[in-house]
Design a protein that fits this description.
Layout: H1 3-8, E1 11-17, H2 27-37, E2 43-46, H3 49-52, E3 55-62, E4 65-73, E5 76-83, H4 85-98, E6 106-110, H5 111-115, E7 121-122, H6 128-141
Antiparallel strand pairs: 1-5, 1-6, 2-3, 3-4, 4-5, 6-7
Helix pairs in contact: 4-6
């Protein structure tokens, strides 16, 4: 698969705190951040009971592209669905500015990485262009490249 095809691939990106850390994620805080940037975004919290727990489904528009995702407070993490590497990098930028406390890191994986039993990897503190390259390298490691 060539670089352009790889860049167009869409998958779920899962972002979580580093092991042993917490972002202090709350549905109310995430909802406020989403609605602050666009009051028309959808946000729905679904109670799942003791076994499945609750989940927050949301929409976010980045660079004119409407994306959806979900978040959980236990285990703590946020996903962006059906996303390109570029859109995922843009989302990471938004998370760093509005959700993840300063000084705390995050890890990532993708649906394909999880299927291939790839370990979560640290999201590096680099430019968005280099972060896209990191995400593309991850996709290649899943065997797609």
């Amino acid at each position: 698969m060539d670089a352009a095809q790889l860049a167009d691939l869409r998958t779920m990106y899962v972002l979580t705190p580093m092991e042993g850390q917490t972002w202090g994620l709350t549905y109310d805080g995430l909802k406020a951040g989403l609605l602050e940037r666009d009051p028309d975004e959808f946000v729905r919290i679904q109670e799942g009971g003791q076994i499945r727990g609750s989940v927050m489904h949301y929409g976010i528009t980045l660079d004119g592209e409407e994306l959806e995702g979900y978040a959980r407070v236990r285990p703590e993490g946020i996903s962006i669905l059906d996303s390109t590497a570029q859109a995922a990098a843009n989302f990471v930028g938004w998370l760093r500015e509005h959700v993840v406390p300063e000084g705390l890191a995050m890890t990532f994986n993708t649906a394909w990485g999880l299927e291939e039993d790839l370990q979560d990897a640290a999201v590096p503190e680099v430019t968005r262009t280099r972060l896209v390259a990191t995400f593309l390298a991850h996709l290649e490691a899943t065997g797609l490249g």
